[in-house]
Design brief:
The complex is a heterodimer of chains A (172) and B (212). By secondary structure, chain A is mainly alpha-helical. Chain A contains nine helices and no strands. In chain A, helix 2 crosses helix 3, helix 3 packs across helix 4 and helix 3 packs across helix 9. In chain B, helix 4 packs antiparallel against helix 8, helix 7 crosses helix 8 and helix 8 runs antiparallel to helix 9. The chains are: A mainly alpha (172), B mainly alpha (212).
Chain lengths: 172, 212
């Protein structure tokens, strides 16, 4: 994380990749415990990753990373519980099935793809789609969209912030 | 969106992360002090007997209690804006200023003849106190909340509440230089009410503004 804060893209990616499975496990456990559909876990994981990213200035490099990550993940799980809790409860039988199923790792759901494109407009949308969905690098995206690298980065940052805001507003 | 794709996007977003939260909130705190001083001087000015009163322990006590309360509440607000710290931030810290206030009240009661208790408690100017304490505190609260938006509070309402107490106490600290009532009895009722108003404002604003 320290390297990542210094702007080292590769170690940052490695860190987030390593955190994701742990976050997923924690989210599934918590959701099951309160009787919610554990397939929402991926939502929690993605929201948590976004929050870790956008709130990284609240981590004090002198303190251990674990409690900080757990606190953020906990906050996001509670958020999702609050939102889902208000909607229809999942019938008991349904999630017994889920318990016995192999956990599907990650999936591109129709809903999420829709959410992504709904939230963003113009350049932000182009850039986030290019990097998230087509897996282009900042440089490639810049070349294709005829934008400078700096402009791509700005659009990406704004797009991610808007995405996080959208997750939040779903609950209202 | 696959999680791995999101991670790629996050990793590619190497926007510098801005100053650490503590630093930006501390700067906001300093700014809040300057703002409160400016509003105070601009709107009210210190009272005529200011210099002469500096020898009066009752007058000084007003600054002591509001100053201590402001700094304790400010520290709490800062700690609580770090996601993992709320539990350890011990809201019990606020007991310190409360004990201090209680001590002041007990001393005042033991020195003051009973007949003066009510007149001192009601004072001359409580309406002004309830108007000016919040008035001086509003801009500082706005500044501190803006900085706290960069934080990730486990409980936005609580963080807003202690930020409100901190700005309210700061406002009361400066208002004390104008206010003609010095009795700890007056402070315990009207200053605390003014600060309480700001605490409510802070909690309501925090609930909306500090969500993440």
């Amino acid at each position: 994380m320290r390297a990542a804060l210094g702007g080292d893209e590769r170690s940052y990616r490695a860190l987030l990749t390593a955190l994701a499975p742990a976050l997923r496990g924690m989210a599934r456990r918590d959701l099951l415990r309160v009787g919610l559909d554990p397939s929402d876990a991926e939502d929690v994981v993605q929201e948590t990753l976004l929050a870790l990213h956008l709130k990284r200035q609240t981590w004090d490099p002198a303190s251990p990373l674990g409690p900080w990550v757990r606190a953020i993940a906990r906050h996001k799980v509670v958020d999702v519980m609050r939102r889902r809790g208000r909607k229809a409860e999942v019938p008991l039988a349904d999630w017994e099935d889920v318990l016995t199923q192999e956990a599907p790792e990650e999936q591109l759901t129709e809903r999420e793809a829709q959410r992504l494109t709904d939230a963003l407009h113009g350049r932000e949308r182009d850039v986030v789609e290019a990097i998230c969905l087509s897996g282009e690098s900042v440089k490639q995206a810049g070349n294709r969209l005829a934008m400078s690298e700096g402009a791509v980065r700005v659009a990406l940052h704004r797009g991610l912030k808007r995405l996080a805001a959208l997750y939040r507003s779903k609950g209202e | 969106m696959r999680t791995q794709d999101l991670i790629s996007a996050l990793a590619a977003d190497t926007t510098p992360r801005g100053p650490p939260l503590r630093k930006s909130v501390l700067w906001a705190g300093l700014g809040a002090i300057v703002l409160a001083a400016m509003v105070m001087q601009g709107v009210l000015g210190t009272r005529g007997s200011f210099i002469a009163s500096l020898a009066d322990p009752r007058f000084l006590f007003k600054f002591l209690i509001t100053g201590v309360l402001a700094s304790v509440a400010f520290r709490l607000a800062l700690r609580s804006a770090e996601p993992q710290s709320w539990a350890s931030a011990a809201p019990g810290l606020l007991l310190g200023p409360l004990l201090l206030l209680a001590t002041g009240v007990v001393l005042e009661l033991s020195f003051l003849p009973r007949a003066l208790w009510m007149p001192r408690l009601v004072g001359q100017n409580w309406q002004q106190c309830l108007i000016y304490v919040p008035l001086i505190s509003l801009a500082p609260l706005a500044l501190v909340l803006t900085a706290l938006r960069g934080g990730a509070s486990a409980s936005p309402t609580c963080t807003g509440l202690v930020a409100g107490i901190a700005s309210g106490a700061l406002g009361a600290f400066f208002y004390a230089a104008h206010c003609p009532d010095d009795s700890p009895l007056f402070v315990a009722v009207w200053y605390m009410l003014g600060i309480g108003i700001m605490a409510c404002v802070g909690a309501l604003l925090g609930r909306r503004l500090l969500r993440w």
